[in-house]
Amino acid sequence: MANGFELTLARRLAWKPLDSRRVTPAVGVAVTGVALSILVMLLSVAVMSGFKNEVRRNILRMNDAVTITGYDADGNPAAFPVDEPLRALTLPEGAYAVGHVGLAGILKTPTDFLCVSLEGNSEVVEPDSVGSVAVSSGQASALGLSLGDRIPAYVFVDNRLRVRSLRVDSIYSTGITEHDENIAYCSTQLPASLLGLPEGYVQSVGIRGVAPDEIKPLASQIHSQLLTAYYSGELTSAYGLTDVYQTDSQFFSWLELIDTNVVVILALMGVVASVTLISSLFIIILERVKTIGLLKALGTSNRQIRRIFMLMAERLVVRGLVWGNLIAVVMIVVQYYTQAVPLDPASYYVDHVPVRLSLGCFLGVNAGALAVSWLVLMLPAMTVAKISPATTMRYE
Description:
Number of helices: 15
Strand order of the largest sheet: 3-4-8-5-7-6
Largest sheet: 6 strands, mixed, barrel
Helix content: 40-55%
Shape: elongated
Number of domains: 2
Radius of gyration: 32 Å
Structural class: alpha+beta
């Protein structure tokens, strides 16, 4: 810890010449370098965290956290009563099950057509609305559809072509292009009736309402419960199990790569700030060579002088951090509420730059910047020991 003597001198030694109101260029460069570095660091962390949170939220909103699929004795996918596997499960509070039935089809207009998967989803289309369909904004644009329009849907069942006239009751957008291009939602009764499934039968059961961190533990729990029920005879057939991290692994692998990019940015900004601080402190020391010589002549130790100049440099770091934090917080708040910076949803899965900065990340970045700055400032501060009082008294 610095004593009162070191702190007092560190405060009294001015950053600017006595005959000027402006700080020296070295001080200005140091403060600016630290401010820009902490600004870029905070923005990188905020954008990375916001982007991952937004894309993950979109993926979980359109997909089941855990999916249970039925199989027959030959290992082929087969429909099953929706209540059968659920009897063997104990779901956590807030989680709920949704049955799914779907089949491939073609939506055709007089001038164009699209191959889609008609997915029965009671959360998007009411089960009784057998003649309704919800298309994505991309599908509506490609086919020239508007709310209330009717469009024929062609499906093949048992090598026979079936046609159903559907009314566009809603247009949705998840922001995930791969999903929006291929999925059209309809009543669960439509594909069930076309496939000839008995009432209450589904092709899969999805578990929703699960927090992201609880998905894998829940999948493991459900897998254990299903196996126990199967071997005890409570279930007559085996069931397959997948979680969203498996079905949409390409998205989550891509999100993990963002962490690497942010680490690289943080490292580069740390190097920039470190080089700026080291060079600036060297200049500050050279500008005060006579002061160092005088202090040594008065009996001040090298260790004390070194700590004095490190404390002076830390004052620059703190000032840079204050400005960098202030500008970063303002920019993050403005973007959060105004969404002023847009993005192409087709490429980035969101239509604006999302930002999210937790208090822990904010404090962590600042604490890390202070710790690194103190370490890198030791190198130039060590040059104080090599300065001779006799030489410095003649220094011009």
